[in-house]
Specification:
Layout (H helix, E strand, L loop, with lengths): L1 E7 L8 E8 L5 H11 L3 E7 L4 E8 L2 E3 L3 H15 L5 E6 L2 E8 L3 E6 L5 E2 L4 H7 L5 E4 L3 E4 L3 H6 L4 H4 L7 E6 L18 E7 L4 E4 L6 H12 L3 E6 L5 E7 L5 E5 L1 E8 L4
Parallel strand pairs: 2-3, 4-6, 11-12, 13-15
Antiparallel strand pairs: 1-2, 1-18, 3-4, 4-5, 6-7, 7-8, 8-17, 9-10, 10-11, 12-13, 13-14, 15-16, 16-17
Length: 274
């Protein structure tokens, strides 16, 4: 069984967010898909089965189990299909636990994802939240994940959070984010070609992943907030993990997220699965 390792939301290997992609003729058992995800030990391994036309069924597994939405592995899967299986395709529609997700190839090397935006509920900043994170957020919101807004973007870059403490917070993942306005910090940001609007980091210890290098589904929380806050039609978001990555985001008229990024092939391998 062939497997592709793709670095998503980047145009060069050793950055962005790596995902393992397996295009199948039919589903493996849930147990075996989870075992493969654990063996890969990446934040996500995605499995896809061809449907009719340009439709594929898509599932995502972390080392901790199956999840309902993953941006970077969806981008990576579309990259594999459009470059190695159906090279003439410009659009792939994935049938997933989160409904139909569309990926369009734009300008050759840019892939645009059409994703749901999470409904965010503003939540109280509690003493427990401050203690577990180690710093008081300016605001906090809860969707699938907990998103904490900070005024200090240097904290986003330098935060060294305790995974056991993060597990005690509400939400599946924790996202910490700030507006990028302190340009003296640009030397710590690897993207030197785009004007960055916001920076963030994403933590997923509940899924056996300490930090998600570039979290697409996380930006279904982060990007809508900053688009409205900054009153921008188009947002350039930077994920400030050690690997780093860049997402180009906008909100469609129907309230869904348009999220674009690039991808790079790292490896093609063979899984000796029987």
């Amino acid at each position: 069984m062939k497997q592709y390792i793709i670095d998503a939301f980047t145009d060069k290997i050793f950055s962005g967010n790596p995902a393992a992609i397996c295009i199948l003729d039919e589903w493996l058992s849930d147990e075996n898909m989870l075992l493969i995800a654990r063996e890969n030990n990446l934040s996500e391994t995605a499995f896809a089965v061809k449907g009719e036309g340009n439709h594929y069924k898509l599932r995502w597994f972390t080392p901790g189990g199956e999840i309902d939405l993953c941006g970077h592995a969806t981008l990576a899967c579309a990259f594999v299909i459009m470059n190695y299986y159906e090279k003439n395709l410009k659009t792939v529609i994935f049938d997933t636990l989160s409904g139909k997700l569309t990926v369009n190839r734009k300008n050759g090397d840019l892939y645009e994802l059409d994703f749901p935006a999470y409904d965010l509920k503003k939540v109280e900043i509690t003493d427990k939240m401050i203690e577990l994170i180690g710093k008081k957020p300016a605001e906090a919101y809860l969707g699938r994940d907990l998103m904490c807004i900070f005024d200090d973007e240097e904290f986003i870059l330098s935060a060294d959070l305790d995974s056991e403490k993060i597990k005690k917070l509400d939400g599946l993942l924790l996202h910490i984010t700030a507006q990028h306005s302190n340009y003296s910090l640009n030397s710590k940001i690897k993207n030197t070609t785009d004007k960055i609007d916001c920076i963030s980091r994403s933590f997923a210890p509940k899924l056996n992943v300490y930090e998600d290098p570039v979290c697409g589904s996380g930006h279904c929380h982060i990007a809508p907030y900053w688009i409205k806050k900054l009153q921008k039609e188009n947002l350039t978001a930077y994920q400030a993990s050690k690997r780093s990555g860049t997402l180009y985001c906008s909100l469609a008229n129907n309230g869904r997220m348009k999220m674009s990024g690039k991808a790079a092939l790292f490896a093609i391998s063979e899984i000796f699965y029987e």
